[in-house]
Predict the structure.
Amino acid sequence: MENLILEYIGTKKNEITSEWMEKMRSRTDERALRLVSDDMFERTSGEFVELMISNLKESKEEFNNRLTDFAEKVVRLGWPLHFVIEGLQTFSKILWEGMLRQGEVHEGNQMDVIYAFDRWLSPLQNEVVDNYSRTWERTVSLQKIALQELSAPLIPVFDGITVMPLVGTIDTERAKQIMENLLTGVVKHRSEVVLIDITGVPVVDTMVAHHIIQAAEAVRLVGAKCMLCGIRPEIAQTIVNLGINLNQFTTQNTLKKGIETALEMTNCKIVKVEGAN
Amino acid sequence: MGNQSCVKILNEWDIVAARQLGRNVAKELGFGTVDQARITTAISELARNIYLYAGQGQICIEKIYDGGKAGLKIIAADNGPGINDIRQVMEDGFSTSGGLGAGLPGVKRLMDEFDIDSSPGSGTDIIATKWLR
Ligand SMILES: Nc1ncnc2c1ncn2[C@@H]1O[C@H](COP(=O)(O)OP(=O)(O)OP(=O)(O)O)[C@@H](O)[C@H]1O
Ligand SMILES: [Mg+2]
């Protein structure tokens, strides 16, 4: 039965390919296509159709090996998943209708052809979906690692003075990381003062405040002092409204002032060199 | 209703989505930065309570108009365990999770109007409104 399909494609490959491209292109609302040139679309489509056919030619075992290959290539084409799935469906529809017109499919073999189509196309579709989702999962987990690496940096700026600039939303996982990095960093850098800068934290709710308070207490336990910097005016107001008490903190509205205070606390100061201009 | 949009709270990141929605609506209505921060923080508290205590629920943000006044209404609803003693949870410092216990009383102070309807077994509905002035 596969041979019947294959033979039909063999004789009509060009027609099928151009009909397929036309049908797919007529979906002009497709954002992905508007971004690629006609030339590019033509080449990629040719490749897509070629891949479809090659999957039919191979033996069962080779077919399975080819599948992953096919899916990986399709994912690399960069088309949205729904577009690819529709491409598969359109392809089989064109094929089916063509074969029907030619009398290749008739009442006698109809069911067998349908089964052959299914044996060929279902695994293709599954593998494509599977590959897409694996690619996404990989991307997401890589980004998660990248985010984690960015999430709570601790920067020693002077002897005994360390800064942790926080940018972005703080969730429970990140709060844990902040605490860990603070404690290990304070010990490692022999910090006397740690400045936590929250200029880039969009919302300071009770959960974030609670974590910062706990972190400060822990820092105190390992023998350093914690200073909170970069409290924007609107954040200061919401903290007061929430009734959160930050009296136990030294606070400074800017990191610059914070560092000046920290220098004082460590008995240092920055002076201009005599005679410099 | 065209004036209402909702975010389902199923995981921790939905809290951020709810906040974002609230901030956008607050901006559209013309709230200043301080009130935007108050509204966003209030949403954060209510959404996190849903996530922590009810497991799942929903935050809806509604633009409301009363006479010449415009305002923003937060509707937080869940079908969680509900609250036994409402007076107690509205006290500063009461928490069953080792938190600061500042969330609910804080939301009441951050917003202009605050209404809570909850009983054990029938979930929790909280409505809080901020008026534009
Ligand atoms: N949606 C809810 N369903 C059931 N119980 C709730 C709900 N919201 C709050 N509670 C109960 O009310 C208590 C007080 O809530 P509140 O938000 O004021 O403080 P908290 O969440 O414990 O700490 P935080 O200061 O971090 O918010 C909670 O500890 C919890 O027991
Ligand atoms: Mg709370």
